[in-house]
Specification:
Length: 102
Amino acid sequence: MDTKDLITEAKAKFSYNSTKAYLKDKYQSKLIIAEQGGLWKISPELITLLSSVYIPDEIVLLDLYENPVKINRSKFLQKAINTYQSVMNDYLVEWEKLKKNR
């Protein structure tokens, strides 16, 4: 392998890794939503917490800024699931395109 090939390969790997990091940041930011008076980062852990608590339907959680917020659990759970699935589906589409171009 000559120097040109090594440089080309290094540039391609750097481009792939930077695009991968950009996609991750792009879709992580789409998982932050304002809902019921708080700012939330939707995650599998939050969805699990909301799914595991049944009574009462109103619960108090800390938002991203560590503020206690009383929320309607069932409404927030539905919004969290819908947001998470929508963002992850879009992320997957772009991820597949990136893998093909690699």
